[in-house]
Amino acid sequence: MSGEHKEKKQEPSKPPVLGQVTSPLPRVTIQFCTQCRWMLRAAYYAQELLSTFGLALSEVALQPSTGGTFVVAITTPSSTFAPEEESREATATTTKTLWDRKVDGGFPETKELKRRVRDVIEPGRDLGHVDRDHKKPGDGQEQANVETAPVTASGKEDKCEDCQ
Q1: Distance between CA atoms of 66 and 105, rounded to whole angstroms?
Q2: Taking the CA atoms of the chain, what radius of gyration do you get in angstroms?
Q3: Bridge partners of 21?
Q4: Tens of pLDDT, residues 15-56
Q5: 155 torsion bin: left (phi>0), alpha (psi -120 to 50), beta (else)
Q6: Among 92, 107, 116, 147, which has the minimal tally of Cβ within 10 Å of its Cβ?
Q7: Residue 7 CB: number of other CB atoms within 10 A?
Q8: Distance (Å, rounded) from C-alpha 114 to C-alpha 31?
């Protein structure tokens, strides 16, 4: 036989270090209360963010929870991260809460959520019509948020006991 086959040894992958994330970043996590039936709302926000930001967002995750939770957070590489590094090893991360229903009152308007994501991942990006009527922070005008409760087939509100 004229040719020899040389086998390449694959090195075993290193286990992730505790406290570090190995998934692609930036990552948006939408934590929602399953008892309040907010999964469709969370999925809608996820679809809107993915449609708007495309490949600028590496991942949007839906995370079921209880207790009236609706929190949108973003995880990004820490400020010491250099994008030109091609290392696939775990990097230090920073997680920022973009919206918390209990703190911010109700649910975000889609435009506002897009602005908050943009301000973290692409601060110079113009969002077109989303930015046109944007009120600058501190101009004395506040946006009203309306909270709604799910309605069952019987027409009665279905309230989660943990949300009270």
Answers
A1: 17
A2: 21
A3: 91
A4: 555 565 467 899 999 999 999 999 999 999 999 999 999 999
A5: left
A6: 147
A7: 5
A8: 17
